[in-house]
Amino acid sequence: MKRISTFPSVAATAANLVLPEQLAQQAADAVRELLAEAAAANTTRSYATALRYWAGWHQARYGIELALPASEAVVIQFLVDHIQRKSKTGLVSELPPAIDETLVAAGLKAKVGPLKLSTVVQRVAVLSTAHKLKRLANPCELPSVRTLLSRARRAAVKRGERPTKKTAITRAELEAMLATCDDSLEGLRDRAMLCFGFSSGGRRRSEIAAADLRDLRKVGDDVYIYRLEYSKTQQAGVKADSTPDKPILGRSAEALAAWLDAARIVEGAIFRRIWKGRVGPPLLPGSISTIIKRRARLAGLEGDFGAHSLRSGFVTEAGKQGVPLPAVMAMTEHRSVASVIGYFQAGAAEDNPAARLLK
Prior knowledge:
It contains 14 helices and 7 strands. By secondary structure, it is mainly alpha-helical. A hairpin with a 2-residue loop joins strand 1 and strand 2. Helix 1 packs antiparallel against helix 2. The protein starts with 24 loop residues before the first helix and ends in a 12-residue tail after the last helix.
């Protein structure tokens, strides 16, 4: 591919980068439109982060503010700057080290080094959405850009790169983590949170953090119904094909009742911080991941655990126990079979009758 010429702006300092409050006007407008359209807080933050990075990279690379529409050459330069390719000396990309360090110093990049290919793809997708919202000519959909991204994915697969996934928390891992929870306030909360997050369909961390008592009702002995009004697939009140009512039964209901009683929670957020033995404000989504990692560590479990471990573990365990896929999707709120079938099949792999043809 012919090398695209760039402007000599490597000397730009972190102070000269376009920071969040200094975005080019068109990029700032795009952020506001994306904020208005995206109901999920995580999506909103992700879009804003991506556009801030585009603005900062463009300022450092070309010495001028980002303006929409971006040119085809700019998008391709972004790709060759960030996508690694194999050379005689190993994997390389075209992002100058000085710009890389400047982006880190400005807080637009976590560390020096290449971004994950999935991050690059997501940032191109966000820029594409910004163009669509403003009804501008979209360079991200040009054949040159689409082909380059396609070849980059293919090359990554050939190099043996695979998407990283959190270790699934199936029933065995969950039982081990629950065994670390004592009868202190913290133990009661963590037990209830783990049971709630798993048994209600593998809830996302944002959904666990947003769980509110107004959406919970007790309908019998050891039976709660939690109404999931807002989720990734029910944004802004748009209903998915399944019911928003998620049952919480048996041990999970007992754990939830014990926590609510001990914490004396009668309204508001269900899962809350605990400060010096006292119940505080609602947990943040990031705190959900921290608690899960801590409980996995206390249980002596090996793996890369996080909030998504509950979600993938729920689907994997359902596959192991032979639960029909439609019933699983009704609980998880997955709308695409393709997005859930990988976990589901992994859970049921050893029970696949097609694997027993030689027995």
